[in-house]
Fold these 2 entries.
Entry 1:
Amino acid sequence: MLVPLNWLREYCNPDLDTRGIEERLTMTGTKVEAIHHHGVPSADRFVVGRVLEAEQHPGADRLKVCKVDLGDDRDGPASIVCGAPNVAAGQTVAVARPGAVMPDGSELQRLELRGVTSEGMILAENELEIDSSPSTHGILVLDDRMLDAELAPGTPLADVLEIATDVLELEVTPNRPDCLAVYGVARELHAATVGTSAGAELAGAPWEEDPGSPGPVAGLEVTVECPDLCPRFTARLFENVTIAPSPLWLKARLSAAGQRPINNVVDITNYVMLLTGQPLHAFDADRVAGGHLTVRRARDGEQVLTLDGQTRTLDGEMVVIDDADGPTSIAGLMGGARSEVAPDTTRVLLEVATWNGPNIHRTSAALALRSEASSRFEKGLQPEQCMHAQAVATRLMLELCGATVAPGTIDVGPPPPPPQVIPLREQRVEAILGVPVARERQEQILNALDFATQRTDDGLEVVVPALRRADVTREIDLIEEVARIDGLERLPATLPARRGAAGLLTHSQRVRREAEDALVGRGLNEIVGWSFADPELLDRLRLPAEHDMRRVIAVENPLSEGQSIMRPTLLGSLLDAARENVSRNGPDVSIFESGTVYRAPREGLLAEEHHALGALLSGRLAPRSWRGAPGEADFFAAKALLAALLDRFHLDWSVQPGKRPFLHPGRAAAVLAGEEQLGFIGELHPLVASAWDLERTAVFTVDLGKLAAAAPAVVSFSELASVPSLRQDLAVTLPAGVAAGEILQRVGAAAGEMLEHVEVFDVYTGEQVGEGRRSLALGLTFRAHDRTLTDEDVAPARERIIAALDEIGGELRG
Amino acid sequence: MIERIEQLRAEAESEISAAGSSEALEQLRLRYLGRKAELPQLLRGVAALEPAQRSQVGQAANEARQGLETLLAARAAELGGRELEARLADDRVDVTLPGAPPQPLGRLHVISSTRRELEDIFLGLGFTVMEGPEVETVHYNFDALNHSPTHPARARSDTFYVSADVVLRTHTSPMQVRAMEAHPPPLYIVVPGRVYRPDSDATHTPQFHQIEGLAVDEDITLADLKGTLLTFARAVFGDDRDVRLRPHFFPFTEPSVEVDVSCFHCGGTGFLRDGSRCPVCKGEGWLEVLGAGEVDPNLYSFIPTTEANAPGYDPEKVQGFAWGMGIERIAMLKHGIPDLRLLYENDLRFLEQF
């Protein structure tokens, strides 16, 4: 909403400069987003002049040399060269004298034009930003266009025309359509300054006098078939209308408010809307067929040619206004081309109606058609506003268009609901705000906002004005009015009592942080990917038709097909980020993501969501070094990383070979905690890797919720043995197909309690161990809690280990 | 004999002092104090002397031996130290070579680190961190948050729908209701999480992150909201920050406010030292960081009283505040990140900066 300050000050003029007004409005809830300036930067050196002579320039066909009386008795008339074809002796004109600064910032100079000195410039409307449309070229002749024709030369131009004003750009919250109006903002400004030394009264409402009359209008009927969508419809008929340009003051105000002047009738509808907040629509009454308007729901597929020249296709929830020839406008949004006011219009039907806000919002969104009118209607206007607009418009139609108003006003709709009365407890105000507001001050604030008040035992009884009916319905709404005007800056900064509050992270939140930190600590960078995914992701991951990851949540109205499902895995965003980084920054990528993944529910409404942690390693695991080559990403690099992660949480975890469609079939495993499957680990299937332009890449993902459930919240202390351990090595050869995990598991089971730890410190296949066999070197650490072990002590355990390995084809080496 | 001792001692002392290496010193020790050396021989022969001489000679020889031993030890320490120094000097490395093997450095994403920073501030103030579903019912996302059935935010242009009754949550606020349904008052929670709206440009992404706060007790005022957010602002943006509350509108708070923090870049003046307009706050002196307010009493009326949250939420008995802020916005302000989209490009050059 653009509000020219000159216009605002006509209704409320506090003793504040623009910044002061900005501050008061912003701090009471009408945020000033920006302050613009319209017209000339400063009114200095712009004056009224009278053209005494206009002679042909001796050296230029198209120029005239004018003698212009600028009211300057000492120096006499100024000589001004003017190129406008319409300049003539006897005209009263607007003149910029040397030193004047034009709207574009340039400073006017005394000039030599082909040998003749020009001491200023006779101005056109666009040079003053009164009207920038091309049809107004030629100088501005004030006596043609102003009612007050006797203007003395030398009068400051700003005294007769609004040539300079600051303009406030306001953010009006959706609950306050009454502030999409200059008079509504003036009321706010009044309330925002009431009781201060700068405060100013609010001028009477511009609709207080209505030259029109109630009753039927001869020859005009209106039927509303859908009162749910049109709570009130009013219309007046104007005759003897002369379509002409609007007077300068009106053009200047509309231009300053960001509206383009068109002609007097259209300008009046715009002006009244900007002043009262209520949109109006003017029909050419002679182009409305049949003298009967019907407001109805449109038919599905019905088409209307709107006055912007476009054909709009409607549906059954949209509202049209019909005449005998069919739809003539789309209610609340735009008039039809057929009944538009034209230069030859002499009879005007002025429609002012109230429409259902949400319905207008829907229609406007569906047709992608937004206008100043629709943006007001969609917030829900009050039926009383119709007659506000009719009253102001009627006065202006009579004044500016030479029109007469036909007797009567069409008015369809039930009487507005009675005003609501709400008790406001004084104590409650303090309880909510944390600071008291005196009852007198509460009254002052509410009265300034047009609420009537009456004192009661414990506070006030408050009558809500019609324009605030939708927004203020409860005591708390009144408290807000008091608080915002009284000044939130008055509030002290206190802290809540926080009874029983204990700021703690849950176990799973702590596990998540620690898991992320573990990966960061191992040199991985965290990415944040999109929750949205492309359905093609599922194919690119080679998922078969019935795969569980295809159980996706689909978005009905995605921004694009590529963002139309919710990701079932972190792999997609990890792979996307890896590809981007490989192409931008080279082949070494170690990243992880911690985020939600989604599946369509097997039952219930909501998604199955869990928080997953996924890591991706591609290329070198660390920067190159002058001392030895760093490792490369592969299955075991990922598994070591996984171990660094899971071992932090004291999990009894393992991996088991397990294929995934997107993983290398020989380098893929399920990650288990006990029997529970936490996730998977593996190298990407080469076809998947190449689909993302990646070389060998290893990944894992785990379900952090399951991980947290498997991780003990508290770890119990284990006694530290004070005796030294005994270390023995064992080299065995086994059939190559026996998994290391099985070997270790058998060793552990056979050895008994004394075996503290086993590690695999060498793996060898080759000629020395024979075809189909593999040699493993195991480091065994034995310890007893009460004595230092000797080789004899552990010999039985060692024998049991050897026997257990023998059962699966193991032979002791060397 | 005593002269001989003195002579030996003098001779040894001068040679020890002149010894140039530990090795030479060891040779001298053997020569003067070794088993076959003259001085120990003399000492062993003392017993054979007549008593009058015995003590004199014995004492002199002993003194000489002890003196030499002390001198040898001192000289050995001196020479050893010097030799060690020389060896270590030869053993030097080029300390300006990079460490090896390299320890790769990982980073949390700036959204995560900012989220944790915010969580920690409010944990310190006694708030508990709660999270909720991102795929949410229309009931929790709109109805229970006092949005009228025709509220524009429900439009398909403003909300992603999964079905007629299910949306991608447009804010973290649904957890206000879920938390009150599950827990009795008093309640102090923050809710970080991912939210969705169908916008995409330099200042909007279709997904972003919010952190919601809710405090409900018997007497929580708007002044308490101000104090809580002042604490937050100072923790995030510095001790000199101030906050201001501007009246605003949200369906689920009443009174509603927008909260501005004084600009940390220009100190709230709107202008830099050189007189130019502050690029961070665009000359306003204030940065809009979040929306807040007292919880609308309608919300309490929508909360059924159950075993889980008994005695429930009676609008005449409880009151509180709620706020919600964008985590990306805080991160961008704090780190001077110019474009929201950078946060989702995941370029390692960006990730490694924070």
Entry 2:
Amino acid sequence: MTNLERRDFIKKTGLLSGGLLLGHGLASTLAAAAPTANKLKIGIIGCGDRGKGLLKVLQELPDQFEVVALCDELPFRLRDAQQMAPARKLKTYADYRALLDAPTVEAVIIAVPLYLHYAVAKAALLAGKQVYLEKTMTYDSQQAAELVALARQRPGQTLQVGHQYRSSPLYYRVKEMIAQGYLGKVTQIDCRWDRNGSWRRPVPEPGLERKINWRMYREYSGGLVAELLSHQLDFIHWAFDTSPDEIFGTGGIDYYKDGRETYDNVQVMVRYAREGMVGSFGATCGNARDGYLFKLKGTKGTISLLIDEGIYYPEKETLKQYGTVDGVTGATKIVWDKNGGIPITTGPGPLKDGSWYALRDFHRAVSEKKLPDSNVFTGARVACAVHLANQAIYNHTIEKWRPEFSFS
Amino acid sequence: MGGAPLCPYQLRGYAQGTTYSITYYAPDSVVTKADVDRQLAEIDHSLSLYEPGSLINQFNASPKGLVADPHLKRVVAKALRVYQETDGLFDATVEPLVAAWGFGMSRAATTPTPAAIQAILTSVGSDKLGLRGDSLVKTVPALHLDLNGIAQGYTVDVLATLLERKRIRNYLVELGGEIRVRGRKWPSGELMRIGIERPDTNALNAPVMQQVLRLAAGGVTTSGNYRQFHQTGTRRNAHLINPKTGYPFQNELISATVVAPDALTADAYDNALMGMGLAHALVFLRQHADLQAYLIYQRPDGTTAETATPGFQQLLQIQP
């Protein structure tokens, strides 16, 4: 018998042998949390589409959460949300401050318009609540800094930011693959989040226009950058442990000239000088062909990501290493797709919605008093990037990152 | 060979829930994808648990058994021989236990109770299975035969025979990561190179090289515990279940790659080696000169290590 040396072994291991599955360490961190006795009594502030979406996910996590309170200033929304939740023991509120006064509520989900994020999150922290705050964390960098300062003073409380896509095992795996060198040196990141539609919600009576379609108005919303591209900006920060140095932007109200103020067509370019990368982030309301597109391009390969699907495309030179063999033996072999890509897998069974993993992480962070991966610091960095991007777009300026934005 | 120059021909397709790939060198495309798919359909008709009405499904539904076809007879004969050789660690009747542990065709993610396991064990065991003339018989009606663990190895052997019948002597047949190989590549005259897939570890192994073996003729198969497992607390329940105890094997082996004269043999023993654990597997391999193996295992400190029989070492091509 011969024992192969570990070092030899690493040299000889490769793409094929590496497989694209979760490493064991990662698998265990992502493994289902044991059912715990400490069910978190949670209230939802803001019962629009996002609040109701999270309510549905909470109901899929009955061992972790019990929804005890709902809040929305619009009665019809409250009614709709109430119908989704089992009636008993559920209290409803029109004013979030009243909900925060309720001692039974231990945690809150905040899914209100962006301009209110800071005020509601601050009040929730001061009321002693655990906070899951929707993205983008705050409207601007000033509020981001203030929320960081407040959270620092309250170490016993969790503040998680809802960049939920990267809570999925798929995005963890992609982060791991980047660290393992599958992409080589990454130079370009292409992101899109397009739709062909006005991005408006139906308004039951004209007086509610600004409340319901708050995304159309600059004083309430950061537009497409805050609502969509922030997720991809956040992932790049997290996966590469970096932040932008310069941000260029442009855009306009190019198709929906319907009185909106935020742009229906934007493009942001980000320079990551330390990493030697250029990121291009775009969103339009006038074409749906690409939909969600997220490509990380490196010297060894490309990863193409959807919300719940990822494919790795090795570059030609990387591919040659595959080509040197005539066959591969393995317990569960890698199956190539028709375009020469390898689907990135994360274990048996289909992936759940990113929010499911995000809320499970939130519960774990609260019960173990651990900083969640999407926390007040990462949330603040993204809020600053979004704020700079919007300034670049609206003011025709090149915005520079400032050292005080690098919260940690 | 002499005569006309040889050209490489490639056939690819889907079968048995996975992909296959065949490369052969011949003067002309004497074996077509249609020939291969016909042969695969014939095997499915006999051995596939996924095909309703297949011979194996009929056998499982029958109280006593049935008249077997040549495929079923050959594979069961091998399964029974390996069952004897491995003291019951390889057992083609283990499926009900695998299903109870949630790794079967229908998933149940629960841990079965000891009572449930004991109940299932009464209808598990290849001693309750036999070949009598043309018939495949069972002594317990609930006995459930599952040849999925070795059918792929058998299939690449049958496809190799299909090629050989057309006088092809240089080929590599792969299905689901199980391989049967013979001869050399043309025009280079090199032996075929076979990469070994291995589990991902936490090491920062940049994609540079892979473990490669070169083999003139034989079967190469791999069994692994690294893709399918359930996590129950800190304990990983792997999908390989000990047919004697009814509980998952808990040992240090992560994967076993076996080289044997044919793929059916390799495929039967790779499973059994996984069940043995490292020390027992190494002793077993010393007593079986026709088997060469490469074993990846976990050390007590959690790091990954590997070992290979001397014969296997000779097949490994060390790359610069």
